[in-house]
TrEMBL record:
Record PANTHER family: HYDROXYMETHYLPYRIMIDINE_PHOSPHOMETHYLPYRIMIDINE KINASE THI20-RELATED, PHOSPHOMETHYLPYRIMIDINE KINASE
Keywords noted in UniProt: ATP-binding, Kinase, Nucleotide-binding, Thiamine biosynthesis, Transferase
Coiled coil: none
Listed EC numbers: 2.7.1.49, 2.7.4.7
Keyword ATP-binding: yes
Highest rank taxon of the organism: Bacteria
Pathway the protein takes part in: Cofactor biosynthesis; thiamine diphosphate biosynthesis; 4-amino-2-methyl-5-diphosphomethylpyrimidine from 5-amino-1-(5-phospho-D-ribosyl)imidazole: step 2/3; Cofactor biosynthesis; thiamine diphosphate biosynthesis; 4-amino-2-methyl-5-diphosphomethylpyrimidine from 5-amino-1-(5-phospho-D-ribosyl)imidazole: step 3/3
Species this chain originates from: Paenibacillus methanolicus
Protein name: Hydroxymethylpyrimidine/phosphomethylpyrimidine kinase
Amino acid sequence: MRDFDYLAASAFTQGIRANIAYPAESSVWPPRVLTIAGSDSGGGAGIQADLKTCQELGVFGMSAITAVTSQNSRGVHAVYPMPEEAILSQMDAVLGDIGAHAAKTGMLYSKDIVKAVASKLDDYGVRKLVVDPVLVAKDGSPLFRRDAVNALREDLLPRALVVTPNLPEACELLGVEEGTIRSVSDMMEAANMLLRFGSKYVLLKGGHLEDEAFRGLAIDVLAGGDGTAGMQPLTLSGPRIATRHTHGTGCSTAAAIAAYLARGFEMEHAAREAKCFVAAAIARAVPLGGGIGSLWHAAHREPAHGLQ
Ligand SMILES: Nc1ncnc2c1ncn2[C@@H]1O[C@H](COP(=O)(O)OP(=O)(O)O)[C@@H](O)[C@H]1O
Ligand SMILES: Cc1ncc(COP(=O)(O)OP(=O)(O)O)c(N)n1
């Protein structure tokens, strides 16, 4: 197992402030990311988390809002999906003018939205696509219609550079009972199985894992890439921070990967940096409201964020 190197990774993250040159591919400054996702009125997840993440990572963030949620630290009160026409119009406005080096999808809600977004991404030839298959919020509220799962599998995953499910989302996509993935070796098997849906990489996030053998660690699994068929996926491992305030971890992870990809990082490097960025934000999470508090996205700027 490769250990996660916080010191090296966070030095890289902090390099943004030190004016480290952007990789050649992103020499047209600034790198740009389009997030296609739902709005979280509480500011912790969804579009709000994505844009905060982009800004913190030196990337210009843009949005196409798929649904408005009335949400706070205690849960989701209501979901108002946007008409497909409005979503596509936002995508046209952004991609037809400003352009994006990478795109990220989050809450897509329904089959029709998934299909429309997939086809529009094709129209613009977006290659660096991060698909976060958002299905359920932390409080258990559904953020999707059941018909969206099949459309995610068939229409979006084959277009994705990377898909970033958590464990319940992975079970849903694989059509197995929730709770089936119980260990790191189950995660590796599941990640390899998810590759069959056609994304180039799968980052299976282990925030929900309760594996006694890895107590105290937060472990993700990265599978896929060139020439890795049949090879053991990588594990990305970091300390598990003892907090219940983790609202927005999934969105922020996917947005950070998109930001690093837009800057020209390779997938493994982008995933490791994203994990480091999110870990710092969890370590400094803000216990706002009476429920699950949100990440503090500026934490990586603070030298004493508790992870070094
Ligand atoms: N308590 C924690 N301490 C450190 N890292 C965590 C913690 N909880 C989740 N993570 C990390 O945050 C990222 C998001 O994971 P996860 O919670 O599984 O996703 P989601 O928010 O979509 O449910 C992963 O990289 C995971 O390892
Ligand atoms: C509008 C919206 N999109 C996505 C989520 C899920 O976000 P995530 O980062 O997985 O965080 P939790 O909800 O699991 O804390 C959301 N809640 N709202």
